């Protein structure tokens, strides 16, 4: 995905569907932040497109102003390590519990 040109139509389609996830979570749960994982938002410009789509579709419905989507739609922070770290989490918890 990150090898795609940022001006490709595919990015708009992907951003639109990711925006649906953000809006659904915002409407149902009202989180302070939505983290889309898996590295998909490392594609150039995709994060900004999701924010722009969300702001234009919601238009204040979720009590969120357009500029708040900068903080709500968060970029991945684990640099592509999310899946391995998530997979090791049960083992880490079990080890921690066994040590008391």
What does this molecule look like?
This protein is mostly helical and 100 residues long. It has helices at residues 9-29, 46-58, 69-72, 82-99, and strands at 34-35, 73-74. It has a two-stranded parallel sheet. α1 crosses α2 (46-58). The chain is globular. The mean pLDDT is 78.
Biggest beta sheet summary: 2 strands, parallel
**How far is it from the N-terminal to the C-terminal residue, by CA?**
43 Å
| Topology pattern, helix = H, strand = E | HEHHEH
Count of DSSP H/I helices: 4
Q: Indicate the low-confidence ranges by residue numbers.
A: none
Query: What is the approximate shape?
Result: globular
The pLDDT mean sits at 78
Number of strands: 2
User: How large is the radius of gyration?
Assistant: 16 Å
Strand content is under 5%
Fraction in helix: 55-70%
Oligomeric organization of the protein chains: single chain
Name the structural class: mainly alpha
Question: How do the strands line up in the largest sheet?
Answer: 1-2
